[in-house]
Q: What sequence folds into this?
């Protein structure tokens, strides 16, 4: 006897595809470029701005400003990126441990559901019924 899903074959297949996708936590912990990209961009922008600012403070704007700035930036970025990437899990744990007491005190003052509670219940109900969440499409004018 073949099993027939309640919501039709299409939504059941979509649920199976969604169930095989890696979770956000799996992607965040991977060594892929996708997990490194935010750190690459953030450290790149920060070191670019800081080296330009420090170069202006120390030497002012002169004929060799851009060459010296790029040399300083290309020296600091390869140092800043691995440090930021390797310390990211430690910083995330520290942030969660510091923010837990604040979230608990807010919850005590204002009883009720948090956004995380609502999102969790919604995800559980969606998966229990074999449904999928459609991504919104912004109309083009």
A:
């Amino acid at each position: 006897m073949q099993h027939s899903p309640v919501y039709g074959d299409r939504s059941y297949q979509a649920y199976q595809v969604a169930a095989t996708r890696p979770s956000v936590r799996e992607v965040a912990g991977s060594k892929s470029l996708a997990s490194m990209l935010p750190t690459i961009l953030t450290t790149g922008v920060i070191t670019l701005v800081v080296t330009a600012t420090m170069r202006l403070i120390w030497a002012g704007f002169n004929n060799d400003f851009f060459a010296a700035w790029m040399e300083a930036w290309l020296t600091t970025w390869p140092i800043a990126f691995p440090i930021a990437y390797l310390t990211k899990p430690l910083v995330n744990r520290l942030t969660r441990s510091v923010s837990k007491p604040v979230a608990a005190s807010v919850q005590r003052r204002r009883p009720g559901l948090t956004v995380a509670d609502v999102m969790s219940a919604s995800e559980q109900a969606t998966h229990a019924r074999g449904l999928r969440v459609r991504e919104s499409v912004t109309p083009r004018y």
